[in-house]
Amino acid sequence: MRDVVAVVMAAGAGTRMKSGRAKVLHPVLGRPMVAHVLDLCQRLQVKRTLVIVGYQAEAVREACAGAPVEFVLQAEQRGTAHAVLQAADALKGFDGTVLVLSGDVPLLKDETVRALLARHDRRRAAATMLTATLPDATGYGRVIRGRGGQVMRVVEEVEASPRERKVKEINAGLYAFGAPALLRALTEVRASRVKKEFYLPDVLAALRRRRQKVEALRATEAAEVLGINTRAELAAAVAVLRQRVLARMMRDGVTVLDPASTYVEATVSVGRDTVLYPHVTLEGQTAIGEGSVIYPGSRLRDTRLGNGVTILDGCVLTESEIADGCTLGPYAHLRPGSRLKKKAKVGNFCEVKKSVIGEGSKVPHLTYIGDTVMGDRVNIGAGTITCNYDGYAKHQTVIEDEAFVGTNVNLVAPVKVGKGSVIAAGSTVVEEVPPDALAIERGQQVNKDGWAAARRAKMAAAKKPPREPE
Predict the structure, then answer these.
(1) What pTM, to 2 d.p., does this model score?
(2) Facing residues of 4 across strands?
(3) Phi, psi of 85 (to 5 degrees)
(4) pLDDT in tens, 174-225
(5) Does residue 50 contact residue 100 with C-beta atoms inside 8 Å?
(6) Are β-strands 422-423 and 438-439 bridged in parallel, bridged antiparallel, or unpaired?
(7) Are residues 322 and 221 in the same domain?
(8) How many structural domains are present in the chain?
(9) Which residues contact 198 (CB under 8 A, 6 or more apart)?
(10) Are 127 and 207 spatial neighbours (Cβ–Cβ below 8 Å)?
(11) Rounded to whole angstroms, how far apart are CA atoms 212 and 351?
């Protein structure tokens, strides 16, 4: 195959999205739709990738950060041919194939594009386009063929006659061009009659006028070539890509009990023999080991789980690390910077923030642990709070190995609880607790015999109606 330079069109506003955000920046399964197209270019190992930017150019550049691309500015958006023409200087002297892609087509498969490039080379064509047949072609440019099935031209819907609009074969907006032929033909494109824009499909007509070969490859799966122009089409694309991701995971040995209700982004990795219950959401750079179980209603983002981890119902985990054999939930919340070591437990209605929970330690229920370093085999009683914020700054709590913290304890940071120590229930701890010590902080209990009975009698008397005079 000849050298390939990809040109990705990402300059348009996408007015039908009804959004203040450029169309190609809208996320598809957690990533901007243009990022999926750039990933495809990398997998194809093209020689260079040129991204045409225009509307919200800086934001699009930021979305492409880290990808091996070059940017070309289309300062005024005057159509697709005008967009590609802006790359003429970058393509000067290149004699290979120019692969033109749209930044709003995130579902393209590698094998489809490879087939297009192979056909282009094999037929020695000046241009090869990708087409698809749709039951309803509304909104797409129609492919007009002549006798023998040769592509004669492509007509945009706004320019099409009633007869041409009945054609079901549409232009998918993906092309392979011989670079010299493309650059010559671009200069011959004229503005359209209706919108006064310069359309890239008119390059095909220019090539045919020179008797150069124009080929077409019909996609076997129409869904993969459909662009995103509306919110409904965005939702449909997310659904297709989500099912692809889940199908791949299941092939690799993951159990997904209800794919229809499970949301897993393309950047997530899940190990074999892990079970995902319905209504699980996995986002960002989340990575899950083998043999874990995630129960319904849990959401994980940018979180790493080891092997054999159990996440019970309704947990929310963000930017956290969970080691092998841990158990969380139900309804536990791990905020960024939380780290659980092996076989640690965080139970129901607990919140952990920027803290380390040591190996085998337990935070069973109704507890807040913030800015804390906790050792191994620690037990935290229900209702315990680390008071880490004084209104101006955050402070750290240190709880050493094998400490036992009773129910309803307040640990006022900065404070240290020594190894093997015990803190009595109901204590507010403001000073260091030495190792193996018992810390008790309570007011003296006073019992007043008969007080409750006297109070009840007084209240009953107050409710009696006054006696009427005789």
Answers:
(1) 0.89
(2) 97
(3) -60, -30
(4) 999 999 999 999 999 898 877 888 989 899 989 988 899 999 999 988 889 8
(5) no
(6) parallel
(7) no
(8) 2
(9) 78, 79, 80, 81, 82, 85, 189, 190, 191, 192
(10) yes
(11) 68
